[in-house]
Design a protein that fits this description.
Layout: H1 10-31, H2 35-60, H3 67-81
Helix pairs in contact: 1-2
Amino acid sequence: MAGTSHGHTPAAWTGVIIAFIGFCVAGAFMVAANPFGFWAGLVVVAVGGVVGYAMKLAGLGMPKESEEQASARNQAAQYQQH
């Protein structure tokens, strides 16, 4: 899996970092028994997903693989098995 660089893009990292911060905020407010802060943290989690998707649409995500690239990758994998 290391060869695919799955998710190693600015869009993925930014979305996950924002969502993680929201998760931490929601967890802290859950322990503090503050429902408003908890729900605010969950909103931040959702914002992380929206930001990551928007960045992907802006071209900062992983590009889609063409048929030629997929064919070449499959041939290389078959060659390594033999």
